[in-house]
Amino acid sequence: MWWASSGRAVKEESEPCVLSLSLPPGFTQRREPCSGKRPSKRGTFLPLVLVPARNDRSLLVSVAMGLAPLGSFLVVLLTLLWLGSRWLRRRGAGWGHRTLCTAGPARADDVRALVVTAHPDDEAMFFAPTILSLGRFRAQLWLLCCSSGNFYNQGEIRKKELVQSCSVLGIPSSNVTVIDHRDLPDDPAVEWDTHLLSTFVLEHVETNCINLLITFDAGGVSGHANHIALYMALSSKSPKEEWLRPECFPSGAGTSCCSPSLQSQGTCSQRGSYLKRAMRCHHSQLLWFRHTYILFSRFMVINSLCCL
């Protein structure tokens, strides 16, 4: 910016020329000496330098204003995710479905169902809507867990947590069995012996007169190698082995993949509390991402199953 002086005479060359102006907020004035040349009759143009005032508070305000759009975006995103989760839970109550009991015995109270899982907490993470639905139909329930979940040397703790979770879901502790075999460790890098798994499951089926069997699908629902081994063990049976029908496998894709289709779901508000309580029984596994799973996973709302 330049300032034109009036045509009046300027003082001696050695004296500085000082301009006093009304400056905008946030700026200070600085004196600039004359160039030493005498002004012409038309006036001399003198440089005017505006220096921003040093203010740490104004810097913080500027940073806050810059981050405001990002904060607003995150708030909107989280709100949409929360609303979407609530919509999914409410919509689940209205979805048409055939009950699990229509695939088994004629009477619902004649159902004797066995849920076969790989680790403690699988029953709450993947099968809770199915277990609660079967309990509502007064089916008798058993759970067979094929490992103690000792990957981090927490096997004994996780066994107790499993019993607590099953109690919340309606499976009595006397009907909960945990297989702690050296050839069936909780380790995705170890390939489980499918023949050994078949032997354990068949023995359990015959002992408890099971007529409905529920386990993982071909992809293990979450892709875990131990989950997939259970599907392989129960789907590739010897002709000499007489297995019950049907066997039900949750479909990770969210739609039934064969006919007849089965769907099991909770009644949102009431069942949602049981699902969360069952998950929270597994204290040793409640890392931060498990809390996110509880809020947004479809397996906490509905299971889509198919008969094999």
As residue ranges, the low-confidence spans are: 1-12, 93-104, 238-247, 249-263
Mean pLDDT: 74
β-strand percent reads 5-15%
Shape: elongated
Alpha-carbon distance between the two ends: 83 Å
| Major sheet summary line | 7 strands, mixed
Tell me the helix content.
25-40%
Topology order in helix (H) and strand (E) letters: EEEEHEHHEHEHEHHEEHHE
How large is the count of helical segments?
Answer: 9
Structural class: alpha/beta
Strand order of the largest sheet: 7-6-5-8-9-11-10
- How many strand segments? 11
Radius of gyration (Å): 36 Å
Please outline what is shown here.
With 308 residues, this protein is of the alpha/beta class.
Describe the structure in your own words.
There is one protein chain. The protein is an alpha/beta fold and 308 residues long. Helix content is 38%, strand content 15%. The protein has nine helices and eleven strands. The protein has helices at 56-92, 122-125, 128-136, 155-169, 194-208, 220-223, 225-235, 269-280, 288-296; strands spanning 2-4, 27-29, 45-47, 50-52, 112-117, 140-145, 176-178, 212-214, 247-250, 261-265, 302-307. The strands form three sheets. It has a seven-stranded mixed sheet with strand order 7-6-5-8-9-11-10, with helices on both faces. Strands 1-3 form a two-stranded antiparallel sheet. Strand 6 (140-145), helix 4 and strand 7 form a beta-alpha-beta unit. The longest helix has 37 residues, at 56-92. The radius of gyration is 36 Å and the shape is elongated. The termini are far apart. Residues 1-12, 93-104, 238-247 and 249-263 have low confidence and may be disordered.
